[in-house]
């Protein structure tokens, strides 16, 4: 259960102000089919985070427990510090819009999550807890909790949420997870 709660919280907080959240805002402004956008976000996230969790569990199984502890702990701290950097605006995904609300969302979200902070967090969480199911369910739920309101309430939410404060809170959360991992934090890696 700890893996589920930690994954949900970490990804939901990390996602606020992230490029995929801005992508959700863009897609909601472009397409009227909100349920198709949400379905695309869900399927893309589920696929992406499943692959990430598989990688994280594999790392935990094949790398020495002490090494995993250091890699995961220091990586949590690095991701925490990375959260302080604002995302750069990129391609608006224009060529994918021809596939409709679901298709465009599925493709764009999957691609946007590759190498993203929340994907890396999912790999780290799976390595830390050595469970794919609860990490995937939690990280997917966390991403949905952060993005579904944006699809429906979009611009109003983006104006009211202090992104800098959320980034700082997420940084602190990931750094605490990193320090607890390095200290042993009651989590077994072997």
What does this structure look like?
- It is a single chain.
- The protein is an all-alpha fold.
- The protein has one domain (1-183).
- Helix content is 79%, strand content 0%.
- It is built from eight helices and no strands.
- It has helices at residues 2-15, 19-30, 34-62, 65-82, 100-113, 117-129, 132-160, 163-183.
- Helix 2 (19-30) packs antiparallel against helix 5 (100-113), helix 3 packs across helix 7 and helix 4 runs antiparallel to helix 6.
- The longest helix has 29 residues, at 34-62.
- It is globular.
- Mean pLDDT is 81; it is low at 186-190.
Short structural summary:
It holds the Pfam family GDT1. The chain is mainly α and 190 residues long. It is 79% helix and 0% strand.
How much beta, percentage-wise?
under 5%
Provide mean pLDDT, rounded.
Answer: 81
* Topology pattern, helix = H, strand = E: HHHHHHHH
Number of helices: 8
**DSSP E strands, number:** 0
Structural class: mainly alpha
Distance between the termini: 19 Å
Number of domains: 1
Report helical residue fraction: over 70%
Query: What radius of gyration results from the CA coordinates?
Result: 16 Å
Low-confidence stretches: 186-190
Q: Given the C-alpha coordinates, what overall shape results?
A: globular
Biggest pleated sheet: none
Family: Belongs to the GDT1 family.
Membrane topology: Multi-pass membrane protein
GO molecular function, one term: metal ion transmembrane transporter activity
Transmembrane segments: 36-61, 67-84, 96-112, 132-153, 165-189
